[in-house]
Design brief:
single chain, 150 residues, five-stranded parallel β-sheet, 6 helices, alpha/beta
Length: 150
């Protein structure tokens, strides 16, 4: 497990087990889950990203290639996770994709003000949701060209 923590490509931050399993299944179909970590709340996401708590053995510099972030999370909400990621020099270049059920204009506006890279409202229909997640994974891991860090 510790070896995997050093090579994370996708950090999935999702408290709904059904949505998480669906996302993981869609990414697995495209062979994009080898280096995926799923955390179930905002506090765990921050611990993972900043190598604290249960993840204190990780290197912050070995962050994921993309964060798929729900906004409605227990403990620490998604907006606060986004704010902390984009404010920190060590993590601000990690692409963050908000993948949420919220279609509220204020959530969209605030997400972009905080530096989100993409805002996607979760499709309600199963196949559409799976297709959207798979396309996101393919784009952010294979098409997007991030800055070189380290």
């Amino acid at each position: 497990m510790s070896h995997m923590m050093e090579e994370v490509e996708i950090l999935l931050v999702e408290d709904n087990p059904t949505d998480a399993e669906l996302a993981i299944r869609a990414l697995k179909e495209k062979n994009l889950t080898n280096k995926l970590v799923w955390v179930k709340d905002g506090a765990e996401a921050l611990d993972f990203l900043f190598a604290t708590g249960a993840y204190s053995g990780r290197q912050v510099a070995n962050g994921p290639k993309v964060i798929m972030l729900d906004l409605r999370l227990p403990k620490v909400d998604g907006m606060e996770v986004l704010r902390r990621v984009k404010e920190d020099e060590r993590t601000k270049t990690i692409p963050v994709v908000v993948l949420t059920s919220s279609k509220e204009d204020r959530d969209v506006a605030e997400s972009y003000q905080l530096g989100v890279n993409s805002y996607i409202s979760k499709p309600v229909e199963f196949n559409e949701f799976a297709k959207t997640v798979a396309e996101l994974g393919l784009y952010w891991l294979l098409v997007n060209h991030p800055p070189v860090t380290k």
